Amino acid sequence: MRVLYQACAPQQPSADPTVVYEQATPVKWCCADMAREWGQLVGFGVKGHPRTTDHGVNVFTLHPQTAGSVIPGITPIAFCPWCGEAIEACRSK
User: Fold this and answer.
1) Which end of the chain has fewer CB within 10 Å, C or N?
2) Concatenated DSSP letters for 52-88?
3) How far is 73 from 88, CA to CA, in rounded Å?
4) 29-42, pLDDT tens digit by residue?
């Protein structure tokens, strides 16, 4: 499975120089389970953020805290959790 991403330059010259990434093309999933869970349990970067400083494919988790807040977590993966196919995040030119 390949996920193509591209780097996005800052919109303004005075903006933060941190490079962010976004998914460049629709994903061609390796299996039906990955297609079903893409964007919910697994996805590019950070869930809910189309542009992110993370350019990997991650498992999304939620970690409830005792104060009542919830901290989102991401765990990078290199292989599909369902079919075992390798996942490649490739920079698009």
Assistant:
1) C
2) ES--SEEEEEEEE-TTS-EEEEEEE-SB-TTT--B-E
3) 21
4) 999 999 999 999 99
Dihedral of CA atoms 36, 80, 6, 17 in degrees, nearest 10, equals: 110
Q: Which residues of 46-65 are buried (b: 16+ CB within 10 A; e: fewer)?
A: bbeeeebebbbbbebeeeee
- Residue 29: helix, strand or coil by DSSP? coil
**In terms of C-beta density within 10 A (0-12 exposed, 13-18 middle, 19 or more buried), how is residue 23 classed?**
buried
Hey, what are 29's tokens?
Answer: 């999933």
Backbone angles phi, psi at 42, to 5 degrees: -130, 145
- Whole-model pTM: value is 0.83
pLDDT confidence bin for 75, thresholds 50/70/90 = very high
Distance CA 20, CA 47 (A): 14
Residue 41's nearest CA partner among 51, 29, 53, 15 is 29
